[in-house]
Amino acid sequence: MTDVRQWTAPGRVNLIGEHLDYNGGPVLPIAINRSLRLKARLRNDDIVRVWTTLGGNQSAEFTTAVQPGEVTDWAACVAGVFWALAEQGRAIPGADLVIDGDLASGAGLSSSAAVEAVVATALNDLLGLGIDRIDLALLCQRAENDFAGVPTGIMDQLAVLNGERGKALLIDLLPERPTIETVDANWADAGLSLVVIDTMTRHDLGDGRYAERREECRQAADALGLEQLAAAGPDAVLKLDDDVLKARTRHVITETARVRGAVRALRTGNWTQFGSMLTASHASLRDDFAVSRMELDIAVEASIEAGAFGARMTGGGFGGSAIALVDASLRAELADKVTSRFAFHQFAAPEFFTVEAADGAREIRP
Ligand code: GLA
Question: What is the DSSP code string of 279-326?
């Protein structure tokens, strides 16, 4: 057994660029100051034991020869990392792992990517594997897709591994290899706050609806003769017959343009413009991409009424969290307005917290 060391991995909030990663478009996430913590030490008997305090005390045990289907539920993201490393031919001994933290799962803040990233970063460091952060993200995505069986893109894994304090990440999902450019995320200097509204509705990206959107995008790209839908030109919608595929394509085209506009607005501190991109993104996700739900729509609507520059659902959708960019002095008013609107509709009480752009997964040195 080796000494216990500690790592941390943040959650993420996607500022804009939703459902573009698997279509080859640009996305603009930040890693956030809500995170998981991992205490880890190596074992030498090919056994992995993992405990977590998240969602109540739970534990799991498997061997380093674990295969897809043998570990399910929350621990699949952990076992998937061991499996993906073994698939690369890397010799992994066993490990004892303890995971805790303040990142809610199912809230649309990428807790599963954070689990994968914190485990992968720890193993990379403990074993001196020297895998870079883009390849680590690809490995984590493999764990999620092919072991846990959840067909996500790669945005979340890239965001939680490459986050930088005070920076948004402009990620271009180029077919060969993703590129990442940082953009100052300095709304706080202008007196603004980015508020996360956790609607307390939980999403499950493995329930088939996320996969259905991916499939629709693939069908639209095929019909247009494209490798990836984000390459569609402005007239693509006119070339399609099917109304559903038209709507999905319209979202991908307009969202791609909104990301570019939002990056310009962020760079110049044009918060009105930035906010209007967020709100327009929400409308597109609601109407064209059909991944919102009433709680998210109401959170966005009430935030705008409370004076937010803009608001939108963030992440895969169907539940989870919305974000609102608001003058810090209006935060309480925003929370009151959303809370009373939720009470009126008899929804569970939402939770609010302000997030900042934070660093990605890393070892915490004593
Ligand atoms: C989830 C997936 C990501 C991405 C978003 C939608 O968070 O994990 O890969 O597709 O949904 O933008």
Answer: HHHHHHHHHTS----HHHHHHHHHHHHTT-SEEEE-SS-SSSEEEEEE
The highest-level CATH class for domain 187-355 is alpha beta
288 lines ligand 1 (CB under 6 A): no
144 ligand 1 Cβ < 6 A:
no
Could you tell me the distance, in angstroms and rounded to a whole number, from the CA of residue 154 to the centre of ligand 1? 7
Tell me the pLDDT tens digit for each residue of 88-142.
999 899 999 999 999 988 788 999 999 999 999 999 999 999 999 999 999 999 9
**pTM of the prediction?**
0.97
Query: What tens digit of pLDDT does each residue of 261-300 get?
Result: 999 999 999 999 999 999 999 999 999 999 999 999 999 9
pLDDT digits (tens, 9 = 90+) for 52-70: 998 788 999 999 999 999 9
- Ligand 1 touching residue 21 (CB < 6 A): yes
- CATH no. for 5-184: 3.30.230.10
Catalytic residue among 21, 156, 198, 327: 156
What number does the ligand 1 atom closest to the CA of 205 have?
1
156 is catalytic: yes
Tell whether ligand 1 has an atom less than 6 A from the beta carbon of residue 289: no
> Nearest residue CA, atom 8 of ligand 1?
152
CA distance 13 to 33: 10
Domain ranges of the chain: 5-184, 187-355
